[in-house]
Amino acid sequence: MDVDNDTLHGVAERAKFTAMTEGTQEDWQLIAREFGQHARHTPERVLAHLRLLEGDHGGFPVCRLEHSLQTATRAHRDGRDEAYVVMALLHDIGDTLGAYNHPDIAAAIIKPFVSEELHWICQNHGMFQGYYYFHYLGMDRDQREQFRDHPHFDACAEFCEKYDQASFDPDYDSLPLEFFEPMVERVMTKPLAGPVKDALEEHAPA
Fold it and tell me: What would the DSSP string read from start to end of 35-60?
């Protein structure tokens, strides 16, 4: 049986405008309410996309999902807090869509929910990870040195050394994705700040 889009997405009403210049307060209050419902399912959508990495090896010893689980597991077992572990879990989630800039995609996804330091680590881990292999591809392994004076340089270098570059072991006992799901839900349920977020949530149903 065919299901129309309103039924599929649970939309009972729609705004009346055909261009934003025609929008009314009633329209935007309706949209804000729908936004609240949509935003609450962000963790579920993120986890569903992360699962797309399963089985994708790209020539590596383990698939991309296993690498993500290993990275997060190592961070968790090292006593890192939940936001750090979630960043570690999602740091390569952009691999499916951003072959040339996957760190940017992952960083954009986690940005509303983590500290500026964790966002910076995620956004720049690709260049820092290059320290371990760029020279094998005829590239400069020290490209990260351009950030030497940045306050988060050491934190990003540590993430790559302790967790990211070390997480390609087929025999490592990674925790399953189900273990991390509650963390993702807790970290990604509420953004840390933002005026648009505050305005929209004011009109969202409890």
Answer: HHHHHTTHHHHHHHHHGGGTT--TTS
Which tokens hold the place of 24? 């009314």
How far lies 160's CA from each of 121, 124, 130, 170, 174, in Å? 9, 10, 9, 18, 17
Q: At a CB cut-off of 8 Å and minimum separation 6, what does 191 contact?
A: 112, 113, 197
Q: Are 163 and 88 in contact (CB under 8 A)?
A: yes
Query: Given a cut of 90, is residue 38 above it in pLDDT?
Result: no
132 or 31, greater pLDDT: 132
Which fold is adopted by the domain 43-188?
Hypothetical protein af1432 (1.10.3210)
Q: Is 63 exposed, middle or buried (0-12, 13-18, 19+ CB in 10 A)?
A: middle
Q: Which two tokens stand for residue 73?
A: 């597991």
| pLDDT value at residue 9 | 55
Report if pTM > 0.90.
Answer: no
Amino acid at 16: K
| pLDDT, tens only, 49-87 | 999 999 999 999 999 999 999 999 999 999 999 999 999
Domain ranges of the chain: 43-188
